[in-house]
């Protein structure tokens, strides 16, 4: 099998609007049930990942994330990273990666310089994230990628209770349809 050139690969997919979401949707059209991401024995199809991204975007929007806001992610590799990247892009917000090896001084510089509204971290980096975010007004809210603390919710828990993207679209479409029963 001969390796294709970059432009040959790009031409295999439908055109898109040059946004991250548009590129994802054009690739998803080729087979929503195909595997998109595999991590530690779990596999997400393109459709399942898309639904999780929409749920994550709703969670972030409900917590006040708007276009232009910056959200720091301070954790080791985790499926939450791509979910957050795609969800933040969907909202027009910006993901600020922070090295999980940073101490308070380095993390404080990044968080303050970026002007983050939130920090999504791991249990391992929570103490550093708390200390580093001190002094930012308003104080950034925190969320965990790998569990929950007493006062910090877990992203996975919030996504689990977010309305289903497909059901929500179907419901809103039927409510606005001129042929639906009144």
Q: What is the name of the CATH architecture of the domain at 65-164?
A: 3-Layer(aba) Sandwich
How would you sum up the global shape? globular
The CATH topology assignment of the domain at 65-164 is Rossmann fold
The major pleated sheet works out as: 4 strands, parallel
- Which stretches are poorly predicted, pLDDT < 50 over at least 5 residues? 166-182
Beta percentage is 5-15%
Which class do the helix and strand fractions yield? alpha/beta
Write down the oligomeric state.
Answer: single chain
Order of helices and strands: HHEEHEHEHEHEHH
Give the termini separation. Answer: 58 Å
| Mean pLDDT across all amino acids | 86
Q: Give me the number of helical elements.
A: 8
Extended strand count: 6
CATH class placement of the domain at 65-164: Alpha Beta
Name the strands of the widest sheet in spatial order.
Answer: 4-3-5-6
Written overview of the protein:
The protein has helices at about 5-10, 20-30, 45-60, 80-90, 105-115, 125-135, 155-160, 165-175, and strands at about 35-40, 40-45, 70-75, 95, 120, 140-145. It is α/β, with parallel strands linked by helices. It has a domain at about 65-165: Rossmann fold, CATH 3.40.50. The strands form two sheets. It has a four-stranded parallel β-sheet with strand order 4-3-5-6, with helices on both faces. A hairpin with a 2-residue loop joins strand 1 and strand 2. Helix 3 (about 45-60) crosses helix 4 (about 80-90) and helix 3 crosses helix 7. The radius of gyration is 19 Å and the shape is globular.
Brief description of this entry?
By secondary structure, the protein is α/β, with parallel strands linked by helices. The protein is built from 8 helices and 6 strands.
